[in-house]
Write a structure and sequence with these properties.
- By secondary structure, this protein is an alpha+beta fold.
- The chain has a single domain, classed as Beta-lactamase.
- 37% of the residues lie in helices and 15% in strands.
- It contains 11 helices and 13 strands.
- Strands 2-1-13-12-11-10-9 form a 7-stranded antiparallel sheet, sandwiched between helices.
- Strand 10 and strand 11 form a beta hairpin.
- Helix 6 crosses helix 7.
- The chain starts with a helix and ends in a 6-residue tail after the last helix.
Length: 355
């Protein structure tokens, strides 16, 4: 090959590499506005937080704010709190996909004690939509005390049946609490004869390569399907990507497309709301998840497993991207405005065909 031809090939290779880099950087957009927003709100985020955004299966943005360098990043484990119930709903739907469970099944079919305490009409769907009608937990420190006294999920759910009043008929009022997801988790244990945390490992965590995620209660006591999960931002994004891909991750199906759609469909939309956490007012609820926005057919378009004072995982079907704002520890205030601004700034940099 002549010197001139070699030179032409090298120049072409350089040009191709430059174009690939340029197109990649153009596709990622300018997220400096989010950088600044995170910095300005670092204190309200508990000083340590990380935001990760994934578009079309690729990481397009990652930023952490830390009190000290090395305090926290996308690989550090943190409590999921109520964002964990999104994963619990997905776990339930794996049983639905297999025909081992129906959302319309009554809890008393699996836990007979519910039938003897006037709670026989509560369904699995009620459990995942905060419409069981059972008296909710006390707020504040008493809530943690109530959780800590149970050694197993079986003990806790049995207490829900025998010691909590039924305040309204199932499916007639929305009252947000951790009761329903915990009841659903116990039903899965009975069906499978396996512990909830083992089921989560086998059916969700391992298939999604979420190596830094667990639901095991490391302090002993009952596992918590509602708020006992711990994960990393990098892990949880895998879960979101699976949902965004309608149940498929790394070429393997984890959930059916039908189940993903059901999770993201607003449920019991016309009910009286007795209680909803600060920052979630006005949102509809799917199965274990909040619906921020719907399309013309009523399906979820922007879906979030937000915790009112902590994490903010979300997917945007219109723009085909997912993200999570994960905090090292829970805060003391709702941050709906901040999360809305983060989402709006990301939208500006990620194009979509949104009507």
């Amino acid at each position: 090959m002549s010197y001139q031809r070699v030179r032409i090939c090298l120049n072409f290779t350089f040009l191709l590499t430059f174009l690939q880099f340029w197109l990649s950087s153009r596709g990622q957009g300018d997220f400096s506005g989010i950088d600044q927003l995170l910095k300005e709100n670092q204190k309200s985020l508990g000083n340590n937080a990380v935001l990760v955004i994934n578009k079309d299966g690729k990481m397009v943005y990652q930023k952490q704010v830390e009190k000290q360098e090395g305090d926290f990043n996308a690989r550090y484990q943190a409590p999921l709190l109520s964002s964990g119930q999104w994963m619990t709903a997905a776990l339930v739907m794996t049983f639905v996909d297999e025909g081992k469970l129906s959302l319309e099944d009554k809890v008393s079919k699996f836990i007979p004690i519910f039938g003897t305490y006037m709670k026989s009409y509560i369904t699995i769907r009620n459990c995942l939509t905060h419409t069981t009608g059972i008296q909710a937990d006390a707020a504040g420190p008493m809530k943690l005390l109530q959780k800590s006294k149970f050694e197993t999920l079986e003990d806790e759910v049995s207490a829900f049946a025998s010691k909590r009043e039924i305040q309204t008929n199932p499916g007639t009022e929305f009252f947000y609490s951790e009761l329903g997801p915990d009841i659903a988790g116990r039903v899965l244990e009975i069906i499978s004869r396996k512990s909830f945390d083992r089921l989560m490992q086998e059916r969700i965590i391992r298939p999604l390569k979420m190596r830094g995620t667990l639901f095991t209660n490391l302090d002993g006591g009952a596992v918590d399907p509602y708020g006992g999960g711990q994960s990393t931002a990098a892990d949880y994004v895998n879960f979101l990507v699976m949902l965004l891909n309608k149940g498929v991750f790394a070429g393997k199906r984890v959930l059916s497309e039908k189940s993903v759609a059901e999770m993201e469909k607003p449920q019991f939309t016309n009910l009286l709301t007795r209680y909803t956490p600060r920052g979630t007012e006005g949102f509809q609820h799917g199965l274990g998840v909040w619906i921020w926005d719907t399309d013309s057919l009523g399906a979820g378009r922007v879906i979030s497993g937000m915790s009112s004072d902590a994490d903010f995982p979300f997917i945007d079907r219109c723009r085909n991207y997912a993200g999570i704002l994960l905090l090292k520890s829970a805060g003391t205030e709702a941050r709906k405005d901040l999360e809305t601004r983060i989402k709006a700034l990301a939208d500006e940099q990620i194009p979509g065909n949104c009507p």
